[in-house]
Amino acid sequence: MGIVLGRNQYGKAECRVVRVVRDEARHELRDVNVSTCLWGDFDAAHTDGDQTRVLPTDTQKNTCYAYAKEHGIDEIEDYALALGRHFVEDVDSVAGARVEVEEYAWDRIVVGGREHDHSWARRGGEVRTAAVTVIGDAEWVVSGLSDLVVVKSTGSEFAGFLRDRYTTLAETHDRVLATSLTARWRWDGAGADWGAAHADVRQTLVERFADVHSLALQQTLWEMGRAVLETHDGIAEIRLSAPNKHHFVVDLAPFGLDNPGEVFHADDRPYGLIQASATRDDASDPGPAWETSEAFA
Amino acid sequence: MGIVLGRNQYGKAECRVVRVVRDEARHELRDVNVSTCLWGDFDAAHTDGDQTRVLPTDTQKNTCYAYAKEHGIDEIEDYALALGRHFVEDVDSVAGARVEVEEYAWDRIVVGGREHDHSWARRGGEVRTAAVTVIGDAEWVVSGLSDLVVVKSTGSEFAGFLRDRYTTLAETHDRVLATSLTARWRWDGAGADWGAAHADVRQTLVERFADVHSLALQQTLWEMGRAVLETHDGIAEIRLSAPNKHHFVVDLAPFGLDNPGEVFHADDRPYGLIQASATRDDASDPGPAWETSEAFA
Amino acid sequence: MGIVLGRNQYGKAECRVVRVVRDEARHELRDVNVSTCLWGDFDAAHTDGDQTRVLPTDTQKNTCYAYAKEHGIDEIEDYALALGRHFVEDVDSVAGARVEVEEYAWDRIVVGGREHDHSWARRGGEVRTAAVTVIGDAEWVVSGLSDLVVVKSTGSEFAGFLRDRYTTLAETHDRVLATSLTARWRWDGAGADWGAAHADVRQTLVERFADVHSLALQQTLWEMGRAVLETHDGIAEIRLSAPNKHHFVVDLAPFGLDNPGEVFHADDRPYGLIQASATRDDASDPGPAWETSEAFA
Amino acid sequence: MGIVLGRNQYGKAECRVVRVVRDEARHELRDVNVSTCLWGDFDAAHTDGDQTRVLPTDTQKNTCYAYAKEHGIDEIEDYALALGRHFVEDVDSVAGARVEVEEYAWDRIVVGGREHDHSWARRGGEVRTAAVTVIGDAEWVVSGLSDLVVVKSTGSEFAGFLRDRYTTLAETHDRVLATSLTARWRWDGAGADWGAAHADVRQTLVERFADVHSLALQQTLWEMGRAVLETHDGIAEIRLSAPNKHHFVVDLAPFGLDNPGEVFHADDRPYGLIQASATRDDASDPGPAWETSEAFA
After folding, report:
1. Do residues C31 and C100 both lie within one domain?
2. Which of A15, A40, B275 is nearest to D295 (CA)?
3. Nearest CA-CA distance, residue D270 and chain A, Å
4. pLDDT band at C269, cuts 50/70/90?
5. Confidence of residue C295 (pLDDT cuts 50, 70, 90)
6. How far is C116 from chain A (nearest CA, A)?
7. What mean pLDDT, rounded, does chain C reach?
8. How confident is the model at residue C125 (pLDDT cuts 50, 70, 90)?
9. pLDDT in the model for residue D293
10. What is the pLDDT of residue A190?
11. Which residues, in sequence order, are bridge partners of residue A280?
12. The last residue of a domain, from among B113, B136, B159
């Protein structure tokens, strides 16, 4: 029974690349956080300390900055694909690559009713994401968003649930429902109008959150996911992860006050964590698309 | 030479109060983080453990929630004033109170081109703040904002500075200027249309950031602060705190690429921290207006 | 081509349970953060909003607190196993459960040279972890630690690496090596003296970090992992995730000072992220042991 | 009524300096976070953008690194004093300087029962701090610590407090008391054996926390502060800031379980924030010693 090197991968995490396009008086700005991850023929680096086949993480960082100049950062999916393909095609020892990108949105500052040419305020709110995996000739593109915080002040119930010895929760037919949504959708095949699709998926998600009368966060997630697949043929699967950010009705009776769903305490921990996905009944094998560097250990 | 109790204060920090107004089908939402801080006749609580005169922090918390029902949270300045006055006027042992409020902004979700009645997405970006101090009959109101992240891709220089033995910085006549602004402005006297004023000050700040050709972040801050005082008679002083979020031009020459201000590394630490204020030459004594609980120790 | 519900799971995250054992004058303290995650026959909850088979996350929370009383929290692996088995065995609709626990260490305060009976200071530093997965009769136990920050001021090289067009890194034969280690090791079969094993694995990891002359962080990780498997027959696999926390030698030459590895800037981002594992050549299928809730989407 | 430049200051925040002493086989390590802040004759930088008298923050950063080589970082108070004096004495336009340092502790890794020469694990837990203010010939030294998290499982009461309309809290004669202590003590005059004093003050604080039967956190803080002044003639004043990290007894009665102070929920927010100080009745004016850059706005 021998001890052997198991799965391994390495890369540069969180390169904070900012790209300005200044060919005209009206500049453009892209603000991203890029992480690369490679695997392949790197056994000797581990077992013998032999770096002959190892592309330094410093080089991977340089490549992220250089590609921001050479290829630009128009759509983060395309930028990630260009980087992923480069590592797999141009570096012999690399069998596979994953490139993950977060994009932060900026709004032009408006001065005197007119958008400024070269000044922005950061929008805050949700982050746009892309995760691209390239292995040989195969590619997976997963677009997404995170930190989309939404709330509804009515139109949400939670009742009729299973009760056991440890159940104390009261049923409710009118509660506040709030979450910070992470959504990731996997494309079936190569190209899409990534930016337009992102805006459209985002809108579908928030519309369904608002309009579905929710009997459970599970139901809301399913309706959100289903709606995205129904309106986007190119998306094979969507995964949603949603912390239930509890808003507890405060008991104001001791102070002689009623509280019919008006004053809440927004609690931090613990929180429910509801995760669901919608897929197609003929979906192809998702392969390694959903893996991330953070999940390794 | 005796040892004596020195300055002391206590309160409840970070009550996460959410207030829904649901009198009509179109609900309203206020989402705030409230902290209270009291001082007064509390020596015995320290030296003898005698709590007779101590209003528990739990009671202060309850009061924040109850006032959200009784008084509502229309403008955070008014909500903070109501709480501060209550503690000073209604609790004999309290000589002074400070109430600090952060407000998080939400945008209504738009469904089919129409704003939804009871669903919102959190705006992200900057936080609106208010800090009210009440001592006996005297009151100070400081409105503000924090985490307003702005950037300009040109229109900023830094040159002609003092050089000493430890200076290596190159002069530049075109750089990226970025900061995460904290601004706090002190009102002279009682009332104002807090919300309208806040929106107007915020707009003045970002407009000056965009329009001032900056020779230094110091100059930009001064121009921002001066413009606010020029346009708001009721504001006695404004303080601005601005980390210089460095964007370093990446050297792409080793890769055969030029980089005329197009690709930057957004660095984390260290950062410049520039702090300046604008005031009036006949301003009254600011009193304890600028103190915060965090600064105590 | 139909749209169907895909993979889903739900639970309560981050229950902050503190357990005091006070049967004697000398109390004991356990401080943990518990997260539960269930999957099974929950399709109707998504597609119809039917909660008949859904054990509320609030009940899962209650169970974590009740089990802290009924079963105690002696070893976090046993506490997690008890919770996981309960959900799978006692709740019909549950097919599988994952329970993740973080434990924070406390040191007794020493007064007059003697350990205090009921007062502690939090140790800080690394966190002990356990992740237990139960599916029907099968169980996987993964013990671990995170946030173990280690540094060595010499005994580390990085040279002889692959160079391409984007490589600018200089070779070095003496550098600072620092990381914040996450390690997780999977047990083969059921029982072990979890606490003793944890202390022993932790010691093996830091000893190998210190003693291995490192030609790359990859090599150090491999030597750490191999040593753990060599000394613990019951461990089937160990995974290590190690950010390379870069310490850059500061150029002091402009100030007329040399700097032979004495003054460093500890940088934040980007960082290398090196991940490797050691396993046995006859290891059984790891099953779902390594999955986490965070990795879902 | 004119608008004028008010108070202003600037500096470089969070220089992450690591210093290795490697004169012998057994290396020494110092790991600090340094922030500088200057004020003086800088009006023209604001009003005219004239940088002639402005020492760039980049130069301040360089100085922090260069001084780590030239002066070393033996005691952080001495390192901060050297930097502060340099800025005030050597730069004509500087009237005053504040230098704040945080130090992170590392423990040598023990291999085979013997401390390793050049490998350490970060201790975690509390941070040692120093804040030095220099104005002309005057100097203030404030030593301290932060993030010292302590808990006691009994020996704490809270009863006999003031009740008003909003009070619902039950009295208790046995509760968990936990806090994350920030302590800062101001030295009267120049020199001290900073490191030995720090260890001694830290021990005094935790001993008093453990041994005082607490009728309120206020009382515990006072007893801690008083004990420090009693045992250190050179300390003029000590300030303590202590969040009351609430541990709520969980109601297990619905599950047929009693809970006599055994199972707690450690809550996040809101928290009590108790702040108190001990001083001498003939203490000199504390001057600007307690100010920090964060408190400016």
Report:
1. yes
2. B275
3. 9
4. very high
5. confident
6. 31
7. 96
8. confident
9. 84
10. 66
11. C3
12. B136
Q: Does the annotation mark C133 as catalytic?
A: no
- pLDDT above 90: residue C107: yes
- Tokens 């965009």 map to which residue? B210
B293 within some domain: no
Candidates C266, C269, C268, C265; CA nearest to C251 is C265
Instruction: Quote the domain boundaries for residue D250.
Output: 145-297
- What is the Cα–Cα distance from B192 to C144, expressed in whole angstroms? 57
pLDDT-derived band at B283 (thresholds 50, 70, 90) equals: confident
Both structure tokens of D277: 């100080």
Give the Å distances, CA to CA, from C24 to A208, D154, D170, D172. Answer: 56, 12, 26, 21
Residue B135 and residue B288 in contact, taking contact as beta carbons nearer than 8 Å: yes
State the pLDDT at residue A155.
Answer: 98
Q: pLDDT band at D190, cuts 50/70/90?
A: low
Which pLDDT does position C241 carry in this prediction?
98
Q: Which residue has the tokens 């408006």?
A: A110
Query: pLDDT band at residue B190, thresholds of 50, 70 and 90?
Result: low
* Structural domain count, chain C: 2
Among A95, A112, A136, the domain-final residue is A136
Judge whether B57 counts as a catalytic residue: yes
Average pLDDT over residues C70-88: 98
Same domain, B49 and B91: yes
Q: Cα(D87)–Cα(B6) distance, rounded to whole angstroms?
A: 32
Question: DSSP characters for A257-274?
Answer: ---SS-EEEE--SSEEEE
Catalytic residue among A12, A61, A198, A232: A12
> Position C64: which residue type?
C
Question: Residue B160 corresponds to which amino acid?
Answer: G
Collapsing DSSP states into helix, strand and coil, what is residue D55? coil
Whether a cis peptide bond, with omega within 30° of 0, leads into D270 is yes
Taking the whole predicted model, whether its pTM rises above 0.90 is answered as: yes
Give how far Cα C123 sits from Cα of A165, B178, D125, D149, D152, Å: 36, 38, 5, 8, 14
Please tell me which of the candidates D49, D63, D215 has its beta carbon nearest to residue B49.
Answer: D215
The residue among B212, B218, B221 with the most chain D CBs within 10 A of its CB, best to mutate, is B218
Q: Closest Cα to residue A80, out of A295, A289, A296, A263?
A: A289
With a threshold of 0.95, tell me whether the complex ipTM lies above it.
yes
Read off φ and ψ for residue C108, nearest 5 degrees: -65, 140
Q: Which tens digit of pLDDT belongs to each residue from A149-161? A: 999 999 999 999 9
CB atoms within 10 A of CB A282: 9
Any idea what the Cα angle at residue C11 is, between residues C5 and C16, rounded to 5°? Answer: 160
Min Cα distance D99 → chain B (Å) is 13
**Amino acid letter for position A28:** E
* CATH code of residue B58: 3.10.270.10
Q: Where are the alpha helices (DSSP H) in chain C?
A: 43-47, 57-70, 76-90, 194-211, 217-231
Residues C70 and C169 in one domain: no
Question: Could you tell me which of C181, D209, D213, D37 has the C-alpha nearest to residue B49?
Answer: D213
Rounded CA-CA distance C187/A156 in Å is 43
Q: What are the two backbone dihedrals, phi and then psi, of residue A194, each rounded to the nearest 5 degrees?
A: -55, -45
Query: Apex CA D31: angle with CA D27 and CA D34, to 5°?
Result: 140
The set of chains that have 3 or more CB pairs under 8 A with A is: B, C, D
Q: Match 């320290």 to its residue by tokens.
A: B46
Q: Is D200 found in the same domain as D87?
A: no
Helix, strand or coil, per DSSP, at residue C105: coil
Distance CA D294, CA D288 (A): 14
The DSSP annotation for D29-63 comes to EEEEEEEEEEEES-HHHHHT---TTPPPHHHHHHH
Length of chain D in residues, anyone? 297
